[in-house]
C-alpha cells in the first residue's frame, strides 16, 4: 500500500516512536502516583515531552503544555472555557466538526462565519476586521484547512484579536510539525493540536497550549492536593485527571524530537514538492478538477480533487483496491465544503508525509489515470 492519507493520521513513524512506546509499556507506571522507579521514569518522560513541546511551540512555561487524547479533546476544553451561552463567536469558513459541533452544543451562541473564497487570506483578514467591528467574544480559526490545505492568515488574525481584546483559539491540527506554530508570536488564548499527524506521534495523543485561565472538562484524581474535592488550580494538574497515556506520551516525545531534528521548514518543503509533482502530473487529465494555489504560496502539501461524473467515495474505494490510500468524502468538515461549493460531492484528498517519495507520487498518478480509464 502507498499511503497518502497523512492529513488523517501519519502512518509511517520514526522507528524511535515505536521503540519508546514499547519501553514505556514495560517500564513506566503513572507520574505523580508514587516514589518508585517506574513512577520516576514516567515523570522524567512526562517532563521531557512537555519541555520539548514548549520549546518547539514557543511556550514559556512547560506547565502550560497539557496532554490531551487528541485535538478534539483540547478544542473542547478551550471552547467550553471561552464560550458561554449567548456568546458571539467568529469562525472561519473552513472549520472542522471538532469546532462546530461543540459550538452547536452550547445554547444561544451567535455564530459569524468568515466564508472567504479559497486561497484569499487578505480577504479573510478584511472580513475578520468587519466581524470584530460588530462585536465578538471569541475568534476560532484553524491554521490549515484539513480539506484543501489552505493556510489561514493566523498571525494577522491574532494581532487583530489582541488589539480588540478578543481571545483567539487556534486549531493547529494540520499545521503542527509542518508550519511554524508559536505561542510567543501568536499570543493566542489556546492552541490545540493532535500528536498523531504532523508530530508523528501515536494515535490517542494531543497537546493543548494554554495562555488563558481555563476550566476543566474532566474532574478526578490528579495525584496532587488529594484532600480537596475541587480540582487543583495549577496547570497541568487542573486539566489532566486520571491516568496518563505514558506509552503515547513517550512516543509523542520521540515524534517531536524527529520534527525538531528534521525541521518544520524541511518537512513542509518536501510535502509541497510532492504535491506540486502530483499537480503537474494530473492538471491536464480530462475530468479531474484540482483545488490548488499556484506556487503553493497559501497552501501546504494537501491536495483535494474531484473526478467529474464519479462519486468521490467510489473513486476512493477503487484507488484503495489498487493499493493507494487516500481520503474521500466530507473529511468531517462540511463547513469547508459549503464554503468552497463541494458540499454535494465532497472531495478526494491526497496528503503526503515526510516519508513519501517522488516515485510513489508517480505511481499514484499513473494508477489514478489508469483507474479513470476503466470507470
Commentary on this structure:
This protein has 375 residues and is of the alpha/beta class. The protein folds into two domains: 2-11 and 263-374, Aspartate Aminotransferase, domain 1 (Alpha-Beta Complex); 15-262, Type I PLP-dependent aspartate aminotransferase-like (Major domain) (Aspartate Aminotransferase, domain 2, 3-Layer(aba) Sandwich). Helices cover 41% and strands 14% of the residues. A seven-stranded mixed β-sheet has the order 2-8-7-6-5-3-4, with helices on both faces. Helix 1 (15-27) runs antiparallel to helix 8 (246-262), helix 5 packs parallel to helix 6 (154-164) and helix 9 (264-282) packs parallel to helix 12. It is globular and about 70 Å long. The two termini are 21 Å apart. The model has no long low-confidence stretch (mean pLDDT 96).
Amino acid at each position: 500500500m502507498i499511503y497518502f492519507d497523512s492529513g488523517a493520521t501519519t502512518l509511517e513513524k520514526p522507528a524511535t516512536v515505536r521503540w519508546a512506546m514499547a519501553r514505556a509499556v514495560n517500564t513506566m507506571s503513572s507520574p505523580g502516583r508514587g516514589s518508585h522507579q517506574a513512577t520516576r521514569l514516567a515523570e522524567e518522560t512526562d517532563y521531557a515531552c512537555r519541555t520539548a513541546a514548549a520549546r518547539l511551540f514557543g511556550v514559556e512555561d512547560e506547565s502550560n503544555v497539557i496532554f490531551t487524547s487528541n485535538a478534539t479533546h483540547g478544542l473542547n476544553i478551550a471552547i467550553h472555557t471561552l464560550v458561554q451561552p449567548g456568546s458571539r463567536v467568529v469562525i472561519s469558513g473552513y472549520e472542522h466538526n471538532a469546532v462546530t459541533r461543540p459550538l452547536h452544543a452550547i445554547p444561544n451562541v451567535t455564530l459569524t462565519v468568515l466564508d472567504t473564497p479559497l486561497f484569499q487570506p487578505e480577504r479573510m483578514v478584511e472580513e475578520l476586521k468587519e466581524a470584530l467591528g460588530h462585536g465578538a467574544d471569541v475568534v476560532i480559526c484553524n491554521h490549515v484547512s484539513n480539506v484543501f490545505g489552505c493556510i489561514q492568515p493566523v498571525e494577522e488574525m491574532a494581532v487583530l484579536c489582541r488589539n480588540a481584546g478578543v481571545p483567539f483559539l487556534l486549531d493547529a491540527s494540520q499545521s503542527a510539525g509542518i508550519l511554524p506554530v508559536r505561542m510567543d508570536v501568536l499570543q493566542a488564548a489556546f492552541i490545540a493540536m493532535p500528536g498523531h499527524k504532523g508530530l508523528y506521534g501515536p494515535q490517542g495523543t494531543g497537546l493543548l497550549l494554554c495562555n488563558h485561565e481555563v476550566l476543566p472538562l474532566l474532574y478526578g484524581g490528579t495525584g496532587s492536593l488529594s484532600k480537596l474535592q475541587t480540582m487543583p488550580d495549577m496547570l497541568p494538574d487542573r486539566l489532566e485527571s486520571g491516568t496518563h497515556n505514558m506509552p503515547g506520551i513517550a512516543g509523542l516525545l520521540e515524534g517531536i524530537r524527529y520534527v525538531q531534528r528534521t525541521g518544520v521548514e524541511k518537512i513542509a518543503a518536501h510535502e509541497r514538492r510532492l504535491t506540486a509533482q502530483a499537480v503537474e502530473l494530473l492538471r491536464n487529465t480530462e475530468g479531474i478538477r484540482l483545488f490548488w494555489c499556484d506556487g503553493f504560496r497559501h497552501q501546504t502539501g494537501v491536495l483535494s480533487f474531484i473526478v467529474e461524473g464519479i462519486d468521490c467515495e467510489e473513486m476512493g474505494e477503487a484507488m484503495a483496491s489498487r493499493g493507494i490510500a487516500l481520503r474521500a468524502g466530507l473529511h468531517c468538515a462540511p463547513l469547508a465544503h459549503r464554503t468552497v461549493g463541494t458540499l454535494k460531492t465532497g472531495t478526494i484528498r491526497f496528503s503526503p508525509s515526510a516519508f513519501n517519495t517522488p516515485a510513489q507520487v508517480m505511481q499514484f498518478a499513473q494508477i489514478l489515470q489508469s483507474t479513470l480509464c476503466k470507470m
